[in-house]
Design brief:
By secondary structure, this protein is an alpha/beta fold. A five-stranded mixed beta sheet has the order 1-2-3-4-5, sandwiched between helices. α1 runs parallel beside α2.
Length: 120
């Protein structure tokens, strides 16, 4: 499941993932929130927290995430991923070079630092 994080500054849109993340989560939460933020600001900063109860992504969620990232490459200003999941940290490290914006990973214990970084 993905939930929208509230009360974030300006061009920052944030999400928290728990349990199984599905394509429905992307289609009903992530994509509409990003589209709305892009209409307001033209670019978007993303704060994506993956909590301790996260259990994985469905194939549809992986596809929607990849499709969103590729079709909106110039829309991203900064991306902060907050997670203690090792394989996600590794994947972000491997794929982050392909992004056209700064991407940084923070452990869950440094959420406040991630929020400060994404907002600066």
């Amino acid at each position: 499941m993905i939930e929208l994080l509230r009360d974030l500054p300006g061009e920052v849109v944030g999400f928290t993932a728990s349990g199984q993340v599905t394509a429905h989560d992307y289609e009903s939460v992530v994509i509409p929130a990003i589209e709305a933020k892009l209409k307001e600001h033209g670019k978007v900063r993303i704060l994506y927290q993956i909590g301790s109860t996260f259990s994985g992504f469905s194939a549809g969620a992986v596809w929607d995430d990849a499709k969103l990232g590729i079709t909106r490459l110039k829309a991203w200003e900064k991306i902060a991923v907050v997670t203690d999941v090792d394989w996600i940290t590794g994947a972000v490290g491997l794929l982050g070079f392909a992004m056209t914006c700064p991407v940084k990973v923070f452990p869950n214990g440094r959420y406040t630092e991630a929020l400060e970084w994404i907002a600066a």
